[in-house]
């Protein structure tokens, strides 16, 4: 069973905050490459399993983690972005999440500032995440390196921000602080609210749909 | 040739401390720790000189923005380290290690990188000779076989990082190693030749087609600089 790339609504949808050129390359090239390489690695794994080749199964793990992580992260990312003019791009679309954020950080601006500091502190490629522990309303900010996904038991990724240079370089060049500032105009708070209120398996539901 | 060598040695000296400004400031402030500040080295060629392999816009941003940020942030981290040392705050000193590794590494890596690149009319792409050439043939069979293995290593980096031709300081043998993010080649291995595989090193020109960048960069590799590093 192979994974497929789910289409985006429109590459222009996030302008002017993220350019159509970035979105097109990011989706049809970068995300597609993770999927292609994941399917190749899973094919090899399937053969290694059927031939009881344990060493090959283990040797494939880094490629599976990296490429599956890339597929998972980007799938979550596209969904937690919204055209800036949509009501979904306002934090009012996430009343319960907003209340939990205010409880934890005092107010939305303090939270955003704390999130941005984490994003800008990533040394190399990686992601920033707002994460909830399943069954609790407690939130925390996490960063993951390269394409490591947030898949630990009980952790629900509420939304993620891609800090790989390919996510912003064509538009923002080295000024990643501007990208980090602009991203808040296109966060999909409606999706964030749904993930916040749901379990981990709900957040990852779209992965099954991509098979 | 002579001018190239002069510029090269000037570039290398920037990795060492340049004590003037900072030591004056240190004396004025009555600080007993005297040290120099890292400074951004001038490139030994114009930003556009590596075209078409690497375009001028990439070189300008890479040198004047990215490398400069590593230099500035490294100096800030060292200032904090000095404060922690003065305060005998050992935990504070250790906590600064990742910043010093990242920004100090970024400064070292880029300084070595600029030096091991050269425009075609200044010897870029001309194959190595002498003992380094023999070592490459001995370890890899041929220069082309080495480049192929090097490009495979570059393509396999998961995230940001560098690939290096390194020399083992214990055995003298050479090999290809990749390093994550800005981890520099220190300790047992000596850097001979480095290629930057961060997306900022190629994205404006090659976008996601990084294999094309890895293939083109050999046209501007300065093997003379690599030979000088090889012992």
TrEMBL record, chain A:
Checking InterPro entries in the record gives: Fe/Mn_Superoxide_Dismutase, Mn/Fe_SOD, Mn/Fe_SOD_BS, Mn/Fe_SOD_C, Mn/Fe_SOD_N, Mn/Fe_SOD_N_sf, SOD_C_sf
Q: Name one Pfam family in it.
A: Sod_Fe_C
Per its record, how is this protein called by name? Answer: Superoxide dismutase
**Its catalytic activity?**
2 superoxide + 2 H(+) = H2O2 + O2
A cellular component term from Gene Ontology for this protein is: mitochondrial matrix
Q: Which GO terms describe its molecular function?
A: manganese ion binding; superoxide dismutase activity
Q: What is its main location?
A: mitochondrion
- What species does this protein belong to? Patellaria atrata CBS 101060
Q: Does the keyword Cytoplasm apply?
A: no
Q: Which domain of life is it from?
A: Eukaryota
From TrEMBL, chain B:
Q: Where does Mn(2+) bind?
A: 62, 110, 196, 200
The record's InterPro entries line, in alphabetical order, gives:
Fe/Mn_Superoxide_Dismutase, Mn/Fe_SOD, Mn/Fe_SOD_BS, Mn/Fe_SOD_C, Mn/Fe_SOD_N, Mn/Fe_SOD_N_sf, SOD_C_sf
**What are the Manganese/iron superoxide dismutase C-terminal domain coordinates in residue numbering?**
128-229
Q: Does the keyword Nucleus apply?
A: no
The reaction(s) this protein catalyses:
2 superoxide + 2 H(+) = H2O2 + O2
Briefly, what is this protein's role?
A: Destroys radicals which are normally produced within the cells and which are toxic to biological systems.
**The species this protein was found in:** Patellaria atrata CBS 101060
Protein's UniProt name: Superoxide dismutase
Record-annotated Manganese/iron superoxide dismutase N-terminal domain positions:
39-118
Q: What taxonomic classification does the UniProt entry list for its organism?
A: Eukaryota, Fungi, Dikarya, Ascomycota, Pezizomycotina
* Enzyme Commission identifier(s): 1.15.1.1
What family is it from? Belongs to the iron/manganese superoxide dismutase family.
Q: Among its keywords, does the record have Transmembrane?
A: no
User: What keywords were assigned to this record?
Assistant: Antioxidant, Manganese, Metal-binding, Oxidoreductase
Q: Where does it sit, as one GO cellular component term?
A: mitochondrion
User: GO molecular function terms here?
Assistant: manganese ion binding; superoxide dismutase activity
Q: What class of enzyme is it?
A: oxidoreductase
* Cofactor(s) this protein requires: Mn(2+)
Spell out where the chain crosses the membrane: none
């Amino acid at each position: 069973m192979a994974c497929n790339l789910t289409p985006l609504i429109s590459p222009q949808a996030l302008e002017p905050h993220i350019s159509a050129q970035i979105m097109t390359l990011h989706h049809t090239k970068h995300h597609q490459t993770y999927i292609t390489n994941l399917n190749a690695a899973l094919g090899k794994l399937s053969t290694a399993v059927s031939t009881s080749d344990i060493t090959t199964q283990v040797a494939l793990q880094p490629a599976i983690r990296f490429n599956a992580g890339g597929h998972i992260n980007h799938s979550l990312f596209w969904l937690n972005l919204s055209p800036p003019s949509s009501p979904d791009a306002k934090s009012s679309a996430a009343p319960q999440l907003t209340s939990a954020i205010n409880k934890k950080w005092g107010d939305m601006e303090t939270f955003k500032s704390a999130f941005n500091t984490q994003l800008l502190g990533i040394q190399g490629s990686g992601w920033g995440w707002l994460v909830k522990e399943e069954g609790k309303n407690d939130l925390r900010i996490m960063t993951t390196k390269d394409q490591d996904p947030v898949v630990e038991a009980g952790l629900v990724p509420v939304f993620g921000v891609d800090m790989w240079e390919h996510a912003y370089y064509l538009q923002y060049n080295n000024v990643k602080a501007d990208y980090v500032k602009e991203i808040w105009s296109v966060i999909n708070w409606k999706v964030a609210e749904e993930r916040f209120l749901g379990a981990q398996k709900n957040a990852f539901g779209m992965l099954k749909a991509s098979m | 040739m002579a001018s190239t060598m002069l510029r090269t040695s000037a570039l290398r000296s920037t990795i060492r401390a340049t004590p003037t400004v900072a030591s004056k400031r240190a004396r004025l402030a009555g600080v007993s720790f005297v040290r120099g500040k890292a400074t951004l080295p001038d490139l030994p060629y114009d930003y556009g000189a590596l075209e078409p392999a690497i375009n001028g816009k990439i070189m300008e941003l890479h040198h004047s923005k990215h490398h400069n940020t590593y230099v500035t942030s490294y100096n800030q981290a060292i200032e904090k380290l000095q404060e922690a040392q003065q305060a005998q705050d050992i935990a504070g000193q250790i906590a600064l290690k990742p910043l010093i590794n990242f920004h100090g590494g970024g400064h070292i890596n880029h300084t070595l990188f600029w030096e091991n690149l050269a425009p075609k009319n200044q010897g870029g792409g001309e194959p190595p000779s002498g003992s380094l050439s023999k070592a490459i043939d001995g370890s890899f069979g041929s220069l082309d076989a080495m480049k192929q293995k090097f490009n495979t290593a570059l393509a396999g980096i998961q995230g940001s990082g560098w690939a290096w031709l390194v020399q083992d300081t214990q055995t003298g043998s050479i090999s290809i190693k990749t390093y994550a993010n800005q981890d520099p080649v220190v300790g047992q291995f000596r850097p001979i030749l480095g290629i930057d595989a961060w997306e900022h090193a190629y994205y404006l020109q090659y976008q996601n087609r990084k294999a094309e960048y890895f293939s083109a960069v050999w046209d501007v590799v300065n093997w003379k600089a690599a030979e000088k590093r090889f012992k």
